[in-house]
């Protein structure tokens, strides 16, 4: 049970007078996958940072299950827009370190778990001993995703998680995300920022379109799960939703 | 073999041989340059060859060794020419190479006894500065209120010449040894503290944010994130602290003690025994090179994650 | 082997305990110079031990730090010149002068072509002179200039340097015309081709240089130890003044002061450095007067109460008691009366 | 008004008044604390109020000012109690507050004359160190061969106490003034050089690569990319260099001159005039605070692009 | 005329024994737009870095018009995978600085040009005075693109230039790229890394698939220009090419 609520949120960054978010009200129900889309600079990352507890709103309240969020915590896994691995730890250490914060297991068990999740995101054993600076951009991003997945938090907060990887890997990671989402007793609550409309539709229960720090549109995605990404795009509803979203997003340029 | 003999090594060896020839056959002003000088030049050349063979696959290091060796030869020959050979420079301020080597031979064991006293003093002072400066720096950086109080205090106190504390140290601390240690400590403390403070303040916020989402306990946060992330800056602080503590060694060792390499140099200065002064300086330079090399190796290893 | 080593240890421990029982630790601060030879001789020849003292030497390079250590109770006695303790005394340091160590021993040096000229003090006018401020020689020269009616602030330029070595370099380079240095730099200057214009005693006969000082309360509380200490120093003076001990004396000093034995000999037996344990109250007072003349001190109090000659007198009396016929001690008594009463 | 009177300012004012009352009514050992002390305390309190009003909208700075003021009051009262009031500490090493204030009043103009001499010396030495250290550091970092030669030389030479160079400086350089400047220069040079070298070496390669694709001329590359990118590190170097040059001031000013704030302190130390020593130190602290504040403001402005 | 030729290229990064590129031979003809795709870590960025002259091959030759490339230069514009703006210059200064390297114009003219291109990539005037650290990820990327566009070099080298921006902006930037490509006397030579297959097909004359540092496939894209992105994907050829590419790319996971 992890419902996230944004109540009358305003965000103004220091030294600017520009409202990054303006009067935002949004509820993400427990177990839902919600995508945030919108032109760049519209406030997607800002919204996610609020949910993670890393940013305090200038005014308004961010709550989880009715409780005000006071800071970040292990109950919410986060993937950042720019892969934020610790450069002084190897890839494997980045994962095992995160895991150790969650569970007091023996070292071997933790290492095994870490190696498994890395393999699932497509990184082999040789890569595990490298430092992040020795990896390509997409590989670093996958390590960051693996780090969040392995923590198995009830809430996933992901900021453009798949933008740096190729299409195949992206599909695989999407499938992995959906699998992990369903696993466990209760479904996870997922808030994912993306700029890929197809990805948003495929993954989400709801797609929220932001523009200039305000909600432009909040669209329910009706397709049954499990979805087949090569089938749903043939459906009529898909074309309509895609069209609506495109229109909503592109409003800026008319 | 081709790796060893290249244009750099040939130039250097040529230079070395010319140098030895010069000091051997050029007529001296007073006494001869002495066998020891020639042996020393030869030892230098052999040392050079050793390093060239050691670095035979590292072009850059090989070239650097060669460059440095040539510079040393040039300086030494110039020195010998101006003192022993031509007598241009006064032997009071500029003792001949020969005199310095003889001094080395005479004081060899004594120097090492002095060295051990200095190392003990340095180690305890710098160690204290490290175990106080780093935690305090980290703590102050994490606690803005403390930072805003400590930063101006550091700004005011750090540039005060540590030597003015000597009378107070002598009056307050229980022993001369403690006073000496305190002077070394205070010299090393400020750079370590300030660099730690700045290092922690300048950590890329992405790492802090990333760590916060893992819900780290404060202690883990410090140990695993803040400390390694600010390590580059901390290392700079320790390096500057080390340099300052070396500089303060002479002053610290003249507080009621009669041991230490700084004492040796200071005493020689007071007596106007410049052969000894130069012997001491070269010895210090030698020791410092070793300490700094070890220190840099450690730094490079611990910071190997930087690209 | 283990048992023997432990028994050895026990034995040596016992030995040190024995020593501790008989010998009292006595911390002596000094400047590392040939001038402080009486300490070295007393230690090496066992005079301190004879008196039941375990002398521990603490060299300083800066007289200010040394005097502070004395006032802070970290040293039983110290020897850091005369002008420095006098100024500290004026600033409120509670110290007493109880004995002597070295007198005279400084000199003015210049390039040979100027030396003759400068022998006449009037010719200092318009010259540049390098000194180390607060050194005895500095006070002596300024005093001599004052007495000769020369205003050292207006009639010539005095330039202050860090150390006698710097003074020599400055003179050699012609940056200044002459400079004040002290043992062993007077000899060094000669080796460097400079000439000695005058030794300091030529300006002020028998001026004092290094006085033995102590913290006032400590002196009063441990008076007997100070007497013992002075006895050892007097014995050292007798030993030193005996020409047949020359080689031993030089060897003893060489252990503490690492300069050329020839320079040691010159300093100790060359006549321009006076090694004497006598407090020489009159000369201290004279030095103070000079310092007042040249504006270093204010003429606002009598420091006689701080010059405590009684310990020296008692030490001398005790020695005369032990060896009533010793001519040297008898001569010291005479000297004491001349210098102090 | 609500911005000015909060719990911090009330506590501080309360503290200040208690302090003034204490020094006024607590019986003194010898003389009275003197009017000047009371005036000084009052001035401190007024100064505090000034800053509180100045920072009235900056909570953090206001709190810091308040914290520092309380600490200063605490230290001063403690000092006054231990010296003047209870006489626990010897007035020789620990002159009373009153004595220090009187010394300040007596030496006021003299201090500023000394100051101007010191500033001249510092400015020329540090300026030289900057205009030689930064270009040399940048050049060495860009030329690996030079770097490999200069780095070990810097490692050996930088920790040698600059005071041992004094006789050589006097012997070689044309004037005492030049020798003094050289000592300041050599102290400030190494940290500036080393930090520039390290700063340039550690520039994020992305910026260099990005700049290279613009086909920059070497001079533009240095001025527009390498210099600003290594500026944070260069600033650290200058800061450390400044601290070192302050430390060396006493030694430098004892070379044939009789002016300068370091000379003032050194002479006072030699004379055992601790009221003067403390006056000098406080004065130095004050000046250093001003210099460092200006320096930090400049740094913050030039590095405002860091987040 | 700017033909880029890779001859027998091998790249091994220091301290690794892994071949980032292995025996690569490739020619990009003058005026062509060539896309590089492939799973992450396959060597795309490496290839681009070779062409830019920032990386020297361990063995082999990279040539431009038959001349060996010795280093980077203004004749090739580059957009990096991680936006490499100079953090100490404002957005506008980043552009004007680059322009100044190319042309000796009066300050106002340069500033005007810079402002124009920034507007074209969708960044308004307020943003121009910000420092890069005050912008969202997508905005920084657009500045980097603008910087390359404004230099108007005969060769464009772009490493995942549009991955951080939303779909609408992406389409606009693609159109802008194609417009600039055609402008001037001779067409530009463009080498673009992407992991978006649709983007690759829409933009390119040829799509090169890399895998494990080797060329897996080199496919000609037959569609006439100007292309309509909403029409070509209806064509039969498109589906086939897309399928081929997908298969080529996904080979890794079979
Ligand atoms: N600096 C480096 N040091 C060591 N290895 C490196 C370095 N940069 C890249 N590599 C390795 O070289 C290989 C190719 O990297 P490259 O960056 O070219 O991949 P890429 O195709 O651009 O991937 P992505 O789509 O994720 O950006 C990878 O295996 C990577 O780990
Ligand atoms: N640290 C900051 N300081 C000042 N302004 C900022 C800062 N971070 C973001 N902004 C501004 O806030 C607004 C929203 O930024 P945000 O990062 O949330 O955008 P976004 O929707 O995530 O964009 P993108 O898709 O490009 O990542 C932008 O106008 C941006 O310029
Ligand atoms: Mg974002
Ligand atoms: Mg890449």
Automatic annotation (TrEMBL), chains A, E:
UniProt keyword terms in alphabetical order: ATP-binding, Nucleotide-binding, Translocase, Transport
InterPro entries: AAA+_ATPase, ABC_transporter-like_ATP-bd, ABC_transporter-like_CS, ABC_transporter_ATP-bind, P-loop_NTPase
Domain of life: Bacteria
Stretches assigned to the ABC transporter domain: 4-237
Molecular functions (GO terms): ATP binding; ATP hydrolysis activity
Hydrolase as UniProt keyword: no
Official protein name in the record: ABC transporter ATP-binding protein
Organism: Calidifontibacillus erzurumensis
UniProtKB/TrEMBL annotation, chains B, D:
Annotated transmembrane regions: 7-27, 39-56, 68-87, 121-141, 153-176, 182-204, 225-251, 271-295
Membrane topology: Multi-pass membrane protein
Localization per record: Cell membrane
PROSITE patterns in the cross-refs: ABC_TM1
Listed GO biological process terms: transmembrane transport
Cellular component terms per the entry's GO annotation: plasma membrane
Pfam families in the cross-refs: BPD_transp_1
Keyword Chaperone part of the UniProt annotation: no
Gene3D superfamilies from the UniProt entry: MetI-like
Alphabetical list of InterPro entries matching this protein: MetI-like (IPR000515), MetI-like_sf (IPR035906)
Record domain ABC transmembrane type-1: where: 115-299
Keywords tagged on the record: Cell membrane, Membrane, Transmembrane, Transmembrane helix, Transport
Membership in a protein family: Belongs to the binding-protein-dependent transport system permease family.
Protein name in the entry: ABC transporter permease
Native organism: Calidifontibacillus erzurumensis
Top-level taxonomy: Bacteria, Bacillati, Bacillota, Bacilli, Bacillales
């Amino acid at each position: 049970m992890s419902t996230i609520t944004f109540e009358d949120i305003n965000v103004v960054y220091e030294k600017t007078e520009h409202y990054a978010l303006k009067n935002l009200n949004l509820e993400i129900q427990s177990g839902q996958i919600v995508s945030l889309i919108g032109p760049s600079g519209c406030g997607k990352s800002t919204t996610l940072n609020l949910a993670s507890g890393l940013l305090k709103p200038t005014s308004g309240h961010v709550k989880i299950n009715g409780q005000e969020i006071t800071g970040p915590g292990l109950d919410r896994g986060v993937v950042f827009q720019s892969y934020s691995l610790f450069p002084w730890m190897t890839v494997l250490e980045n994962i095992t370190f995160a895991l150790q914060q969650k569970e007091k297991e023996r070292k071997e068990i933790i290492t095994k778990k870490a190696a498994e999740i890395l393999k699932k995101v497509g990184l082999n054993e040789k890569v595990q001993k490298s430092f992040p600076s020795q990896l390509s951009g997409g590989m670093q991003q996958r390590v960051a995703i693996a780090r969040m997945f392995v923590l198995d938090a009830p809430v996933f907060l992901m900021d453009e998680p798949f933008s740096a990887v190729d299409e195949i890997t992206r599909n695989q990671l999407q499938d992995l995300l959906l699998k992990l989402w369903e696993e466990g007793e209760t479904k996870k609550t997922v808030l994912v920022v993306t700029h890929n409309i197809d990805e948003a539709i495929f993954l989400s229960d709801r797609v929220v379109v932001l523009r200039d720090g305000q909600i432009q549109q909040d669209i329910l995605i009706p397709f049954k799960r499990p979805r087949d990404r090569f089938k749903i795009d043939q459906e009529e509803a898909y074309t309509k939703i895609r069209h609506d979203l495109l229109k909503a997003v592109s409003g800026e340029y008319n | 073999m081709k790796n060893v003999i290249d244009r750099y090594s040939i130039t250097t060896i040529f230079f070395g041989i010319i140098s030895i020839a010069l000091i051997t056959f050029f007529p001296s002003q007073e006494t001869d340059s002495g066998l020891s000088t020639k042996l020393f030049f030869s030892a230098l050349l052999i040392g050079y060859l050793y390093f060239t063979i050691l670095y035979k696959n590292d072009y850059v290091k090989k070239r650097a060794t060669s460059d440095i060796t040539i510079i040393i030869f040039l300086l030494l020959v110039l020195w010998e020419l101006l003192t022993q050979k031509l007598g241009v420079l006064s032997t009071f301020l500029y003792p001949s190479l020969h005199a310095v080597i003889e001094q080395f031979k005479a004081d060899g064991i004594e120097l090492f006894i002095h060295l051990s006293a200095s190392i003990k003093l340095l180690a305890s002072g710098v160690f204290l500065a490290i175990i106080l400066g780093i935690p305090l720096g980290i703590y102050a950086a994490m606690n803005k209120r403390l930072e805003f109080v400590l930063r101006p205090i550091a700004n005011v106190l750090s540039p005060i010449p540590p030597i003015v504390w000597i009378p107070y140290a002598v009056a307050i601390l229980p022993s001369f040894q403690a006073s000496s240690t305190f002077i070394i400590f205070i010299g090393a403390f400020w750079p370590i503290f300030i660099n730690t403070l700045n290092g922690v303040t300048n950590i890329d916020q992405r790492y802090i944010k990333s760590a916060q989402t893992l819900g780290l306990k404060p202690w883990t946060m410090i140990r695993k994130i803040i400390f390694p992330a600010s390590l580059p800056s901390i290392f700079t602080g320790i390096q500057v602290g080390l340099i300052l503590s070396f500089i303060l060694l002479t002053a610290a060792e003249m507080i009621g003690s009669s041991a230490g390499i700084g004492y040796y140099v200071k005493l020689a200065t007071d007596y106007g025994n410049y052969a000894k002064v130069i012997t001491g300086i070269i010895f210090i330079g030698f020791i410092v090179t070793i300490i700094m090399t070890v220190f840099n190796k450690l730094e490079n290893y611990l910071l190997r994650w930087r690209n | 082997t283990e048992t023997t080593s432990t028994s050895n240890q026990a034995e040596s421990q016992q030995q040190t305990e024995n020593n501790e029982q008989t010998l009292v630790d006595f911390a002596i601060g000094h400047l590392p110079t040939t001038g402080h030879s009486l300490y070295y001789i007393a230690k090496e020849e066992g005079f301190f031990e004879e008196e039941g003292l375990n002398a521990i030497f603490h060299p300083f390079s800066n007289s200010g730090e040394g005097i502070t250590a004395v006032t802070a109770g970290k040293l039983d006695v110290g020897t850091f010149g005369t002008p420095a303790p006098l100024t500290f005394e004026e600033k409120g340091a509670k110290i007493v002068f109880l004995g002597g160590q070295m007198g005279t021993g400084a000199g003015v040096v210049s390039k040979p072509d100027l030396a003759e000229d400068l022998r006449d003090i009037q010719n200092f006018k318009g010259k540049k002179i390098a000194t180390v401020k607060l050194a005895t020689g500095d006070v002596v020269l300024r005093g001599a200039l004052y007495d000769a009616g020369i205003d050292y602030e207006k009639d010539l330029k005095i330039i202050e340097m860090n150390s006698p070595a710097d003074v020599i370099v400055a003179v050699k380079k012609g940056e200044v015309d002459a400079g004040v240095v002290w043992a062993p730099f007077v000899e060094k200057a000669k080796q460097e081709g400079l000439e000695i214009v005058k030794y300091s005693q030529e300006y002020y006969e028998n001026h004092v240089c290094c006085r033995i000082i102590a913290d006032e309360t400590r002196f009063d509380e441990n008076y007997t130890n100070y007497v013992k200490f002075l006895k050892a120093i007097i014995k050292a003076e007798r030993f030193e003044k005996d020409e047949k001990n020359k080689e031993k004396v030089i060897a003893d000093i060489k252990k503490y002061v690492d300069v050329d034995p020839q320079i040691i000999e010159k300093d100790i037996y060359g006549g321009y450095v006076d090694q004497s344990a006598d407090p020489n109250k009159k000369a201290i007072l004279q030095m103070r007067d000079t310092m007042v003349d040249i504006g270093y001190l204010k003429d606002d109090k009598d420091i006689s109460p701080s010059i405590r000659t009684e310990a020296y007198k008692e030490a001398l009396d005790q020695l005369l008691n032990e060896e009533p016929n010793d001519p040297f001690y008898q001569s010291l008594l005479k000297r004491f009366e001349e210098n102090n009463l």
